[in-house]
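Progress note, project year one: complex with pyridoxal-5'-phosphate.
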Amino acid sequence: MHNNNPERFVADVMTRVPPSGIRKYFDLASGIEGVISLGVGEPDFVTPWHIREACIHSLEKGKTSYTSNYGLIQLREEISKLYTHKHNTYYDPASEILVMSGVSEALDVAIRAITNPGDEIIVPQPAYVAYVPSVMFAGGTPVPVVTQFKNKFKLTAEDLKRAITPRTKAVIINYPNNPTGATMGREDLEAIAEVVSEHDIMVISDEVYECLTYNGEHACFSSIEGMKDRTILLNGFSKAYAMTGFRLAYALAPLPIINAMMRIHQYCMLCAPITAQIGAIEALRNGNEEMQRMVRDYDRRRHLIISGLNKIGLECYEPKGAFYAFPSVRDTGLTSEEFAERLLYEQKVVTIPGNVFGPAGEGFLRCSYATSKDQIAEALERMECFMESL
Ligand SMILES: Cc1ncc(COP(=O)(O)O)c(C=O)c1O
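Model obtained:
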């Protein structure tokens, strides 16, 4: 006789990969009236009209087919031009660019394309919630490295070096960073480049927040000398152009890596949606002005939230990119989870406890400022009341 529980069919790895801790806070908040959310990880803007219009027009014209597995050649050409002009780094549209359904897909496929069972992939933490599970699904071993408040949450060459073993295959870097808002300058990247060359490992560089860089220029990792041949660069349209629902992104990598990723992508996804690809072409050709307008708006909110958090006693370094503040709650004596749960129940403000992004995030809170200035101001007032009540 079998045990009849359908759970017996589920793969073992699933029991080791918990659901995203972020969802829990949205579930807790749903049903509470008058909640303000600093929990979301997506732009509060609607996709600019000219991008939506290009998509609508394409549908009217009946453009509803599959595309090349690599993505529309016009889109790959626009991406190639962008990297040539902005980063002085050439990617061949025919063989080094793969258009995919979100950085989420690109990340999963990139890791699967390079990971043999038991390979170690270094994941600096606090980290975006998908990295560790994606490594585990691919049969690899995630190896955490702690990035620290005192280093403004940058990955240092020394910390990376210490985590490398003979089994290390790659490190996943992400700047501007979710959840810390930290970014890396050219010098920081050059120090990382030296270590990855010395130890002959790959870099998966998630640069989806590139356009949301507030001070100075973003340097892409593959533009660092010698790095193009060992980098899988991931970028997309979700954050820069407020296109999260379009599910569109791309991977840039050397030909053998793109070939390997392509074999997974063509079987699991076939191609990214054509309508989204048409929207992405419009975004790259004519979307700069609107995108800059949104970035200026995030920047104003960034100043508001950082000064507000510091004023009420939640120490917060100045994040240089993305749309997250990452204040410390250690001085309150509460854990991140206690703080986030009590703040939600007592003042109806949703934030995400730092430990959701790995144990290194304990003692911190992720506060998204992808919400209106009024909402941020109101959330800060409520947080002040909460701090006074402790
Ligand atoms: C660091 C990071 N990478 C990737 C993603 C997923 O992006 P996409 O919408 O392109 O799948 C997110 C979304 O929040 C993110 O924060």
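Residues 25 and 59 are 37 Å apart (CA to CA).
The chain has two domains: 6-47+289-389, 49-287.
No further modelling is planned for this target in the current period.
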